[in-house]
Here is the input.
Amino acid sequence: MTAFRNRGLPPRLADLEEEIKGYAKGYGLDFYEVIFEMLTYDEVNMVAAYGGYPNRYPHWRFGMDYEQLSKGYEYGLSKIYEMVINNDPTYAYLLESNPEVDQKLVMAHVYGHGDFFKNNFAFQHTNRKMMDEMANHATRVRRLIDRHGVEKIEDFIDRCLSLENLIDYHAPYIKRAPAASTEPATDQQVQGLHNEREYMGGFINPPEYLDELQRKAIEEQERTRRFPERPQRDVLLFLLDHAPLEPWEQDILSIIREEAYYFAPQGMTKIMNEGWASYWHSTIMTNKALRDSEIIDYADHHAGTMSMRPGSLNPYKIGIELFRDIEERWNMGRFGKEWENVDSLAERQSWDKQLGLGREKIFEVRKHYNDVTFIDEFLTPEFCIQQKLFVYDYNDKRQTWEIATRQFEAVKEKLLHQLTNFGQPIIEVMDANFENRSELLLVHKHDGIDLKIDDAKHSLYCLQTLWRRPVNLYTRVEGKSLILRFDGQEHSEHKAEL
Amino acid sequence: MTRRTDTLSLKIKQDHARFKAIVRGKIKQNLRKFIQKGEMLGKQGKDLITIPLPTINIPHFRYGAKQQGGVGQGEGEIGQSLGPGEEQPGDGDGKAGQGEGQHIMEVDVSLDELAEILGEELHLPKIEPKGTDRIITEKTRYTGINTIGPESLRHFKRTYKQALRRQIASGTYDPVRPVIVPFREDRRYRSWKVTPLPEAAALIIYIMDVSGSMGDEQKEIVRVESFWIDTWLRHHYKGLKARYIIHDAVAHEVDRETFFHTRESGGTMISSAYKLAAEMIEKDHPSSSWNTYVFHFSDGDNWSADDTRLCIDIVKEKILPNVNLFAYGQVESPYGSGQFIRDLREHCEGDDRVALSEIADKEAIYGSIRDFLGKGR
Here is the structure.
């Protein structure tokens, strides 16, 4: 299914497309077929509001996004100049009113994304026919709306969306132990009564008696066994499997979960993905595609993309600079043990073994890393200084955000923390029969940062409507352990240790 | 438009209409508490600002901001402030991976455009300045050509053309040797016209109650609101003048900086401020040539009923006859909302020059601006 099938690019742009594609392939970029669609700004806003998929299920938040995008455009605040969808074929949208140089830049950028989607490991499990899948979801939800009414369905979607981040971001890449073991509860033989005379065995411990004991032991174990046996990070899956949901509720929850998993890799590789695409648009444009007359416009546009507002981090900028840094380091041989052992500053600055391994290395990096490992491995103190990175903190006394430090270790730690688990708190299902009252217990693995409590309360409310029984969240607030509870009527909290 | 585009636009219109209905409170009341008006006051330096748009963020389990901090990029000493407020600089939580590879470029808006957007959003009527013909400035513009004038204004091209025309007509023009010599009569000069340009002078007097009961949050509300009022009025009047009065039991005129940052304590005698304002108007800004606006913000807890009576007298006799608008905004403080607005309402009900508004919290600023400026005065 194509979005706008019978709209090919005009001949001039089709020529450009061929040209840029040629350069991209020449550099060794590897992507699925890329289909460019030319849209007017209003169409771009519509498609963008749906996250790039012309066929999504109806929901007000797409309308909200549309309003923001179109108002932003009308008032000249912002405009979307590029959109690309992880799919095979890869869809990309061009804005009709863009000047030619921008179209070229966008094409080059898109081929960068296309290559990343196809090759980076994080995307390997994603559905490459998501365009169709999204349309299927839309049909399913529409059918449910016809049957149950829009209010009911939309309310349920809203509640699921409040929980959509409770998935296991790493599940696609590792194998976790199953939640409930299928083995028998116990294989330990019961001993029976103490017996010194073997010949009396049949009388002191008759087989019926032993069987009875065994049955009791198993029962006892079953009773005390936790369910799930191991904490479950994929809360949505747990709800799908074990919450008393209506079939239509299951249907919607599974749609929300599937889409959350599909979008997750994009959140986990934001810096790399944007950095990679920007690296390639700049390489292709400046080395090949740019005409003399376009230089100013290109530079202006490129600078706009790379600009940083004070205090915020631009993933494009960090990404592209880090890729360039890696390329340079591997070109000059500034890696490995030998390099690390060089202490003298003068020697470090003039170090160049002319290895020329840079290009090869960055292709390897784009395949095997995500943002966390990317930063962890390639962020260097030199890079931190060059890019003027800093950590900011909230100063309670002055009620402002302040630059706290520029130390390399601190910057790296903070950056990694922001990226770990997608910047989301880690929350797991600990017990589905909490206090033996089939209440749900979630545990927030506290890592130094408290949850936003009012938001958490709302999410608990949403969770309760799915689980039907009271729900509990174990967390820490200002250093104190407590359980937030919602029983279907009201919220409460009390001190607790697990 | 293809058929697909039609269905797409139909779908988005439905979703959009649904969102609008939620924002207006028509459906899904349970979501109303998550509507955010967005921080209306962006960066004020250099005329740049971001636009308010209502959004609804569905709450998730997520980190609270304060302990979190983050990593930024740029110049700055350690300890340097990145800007006040609760909001995280940059994008704190970042929307979950929706809208992949979707890039938004930010463009800046000028205050003037901002005022227009504000007007459009709130359906504010345009202000009709009064006394337009009273102050007249003269503006000179070059509008035509004259045969006499100072040499410095000689119009070279027109002079040349005139000479060329004369030479051709009199047969002295030689195409082989095209030398044109202008005579005195050929010379043409730029001429000008003086147009009277009526200009309306405008003055805003901001009055704020800084008595003990006005906390930081109340002041923040006043600050945001007066920023927007300022923006709107400046859009209509060139050279708008603003004067600031703070009062507790006594009133002082202060500068802008002090106005927003002082915290005093003590009782409240509103009449002191009104007296000062009336004096100001009388002495420096006669109503014959000024469009005067008085905005007073207080929590409405006046000292005594006597003082309130005095206030109303001053308003009625000295202030109202001399101003376009007298606006009183009552900010709700931790100690509740006072009586003053009711007294004013009782005595000034129906007067077109009076605008009263109660501002419960930050969210209410929007509506309150409309109360104040919706009269088009």
Notes: Residues 137-197 of chain B form one domain. Chain B touches chain A through 74 residues (CB under 8 Å). The first helix of chain B runs from residue 3 to 23.
